[in-house]
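User: I'm preparing a small set of examples for a lab meeting where we compare how different chains pack in three dimensions. I only have the primary sequence for this one, and I'd like the structure in token form so I can line it up with the others. Please keep the answer compact; I'll paste it straight into my notes.
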Amino acid sequence: MANSTATAVKVMTPGPAGRISPEGSQVLSKKKLQDLVREIDPNEQLDEDVEEMLLQIADDFIESVVTAACQLARHRKSNTLEVKDVQLHLERQWNMWIPGYGSDEIRPFKKACTTEAHKQRMALIRKTTKK
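Assistant: Understood. Below is the structure token output for the 131-residue chain.
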């Protein structure tokens, strides 16, 4: 079993306009967002409104992940939020796996389950395309 890492989370109360994190404690700042965009395309420039929207989406995503992970920690009767709580939520709700955190096991690829009706449709398609 892999070592688990405990992470402290500072709980903040909503401020004006319902924002949970004040401007100074955003995980993604405008400068970091601009650097990321420049890394992808050096000639690209985002509008001010687009930057604000992307920052808001990032804040909302982080808030929802932390909230759900805290609920998972509470469910396992712990007062400490651990990496495995965040990993479980990201994997189950967002189908995301962040390599390098938690266990180093190779993640098995989940093949989609094909129904009998799908198999019949595919056989019919193959049959008609062969003619």
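A couple of notes for your slides: The longest helix spans residues 48-75. The longest strand covers residues 6-7.

User: Perfect, thanks.
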